[in-house]
Amino acid sequence: MQKRQSDRAMYFKELAATSRKYYIPYIQTYKAIKTGMNILEIGCGDGGNLLPFSEMGCNTTGIDIAESRIKDAKRFFKEVNAKGMFIASDVFKINDLENCFDIVICHDVLEHIDNKERFLIDLKKFLSKDGIIFMSFPAWQMPFGGHQQICKSWLASHLPFIHLLPKLLYVGLLRLCHEKQETINELLNIKHTQCSIESFRKIALGEYKIINQQFYFINPHYEIKFGIKPRKLSPIISSIPFIRNYFTTSFFCILKI
């Protein structure tokens, strides 16, 4: 397992730094972020993405199905004297926050969702008038699109493209690396729910306008993690669906009703 997957405080700080440097400037190109705005993150994890919004005076809310992550988010926010509300729940079961949010953030969440169409439809209920959704996720075919970095084994967590192996070979490799069954189940769920850029666009365009798209060859988060400057795909490569899926480590877009 890569260190940041076990050191949650480290991961929280890294996400906050990436959000501050890259997500907020990208969002502000399409919607000015002002004090008092209501910001929601679906699948917020430890809350790192939301910290810079809270620092800007926004009202931040995070939802995550994992109670342990919500517990960490509350603790980390308290440690830095930041304000935020965090809810441990399945997003499909939330019915009391309708039409509340100016910005909804979905960072590295969509690839975990089985029913993507229902998820995208459900997101609408959270948006206030003129609200937007910031969506980002890794293309399924890219080197670590299977999230194998969560593996405990150093080898499995650093091997690119293994998630593209046939299921039997993939499971066999994970077992050879002594991965726990719960980790294997999570990785197989991601393999089952795999999300290509094309499948996302097809679903999203039925419900939203896609205001902008950015295709990163080097994920902005890699600058914080590894000291590598982000790089976008060239217009030529990003226009070819099959090729861009293998090179897009992070896809950004803005959705609006």
UniProtKB/TrEMBL annotation:
Keyword field: Methyltransferase, Transferase
InterPro entries assigned to the protein according to its UniProt record, in alphabetical order: Methyltransf_11 (IPR013216), SAM-dependent_MTases_sf (IPR029063)
Enzyme Commission number: 2.1.1.-
Domain Methyltransferase type: 40-134
Molecular-function GO terms, alphabetical: S-adenosylmethionine-dependent methyltransferase activity
GO terms classed as biological process: methylation
Name assigned to this protein: Type 12 methyltransferase
Organism of derivation: Bacteroides finegoldii
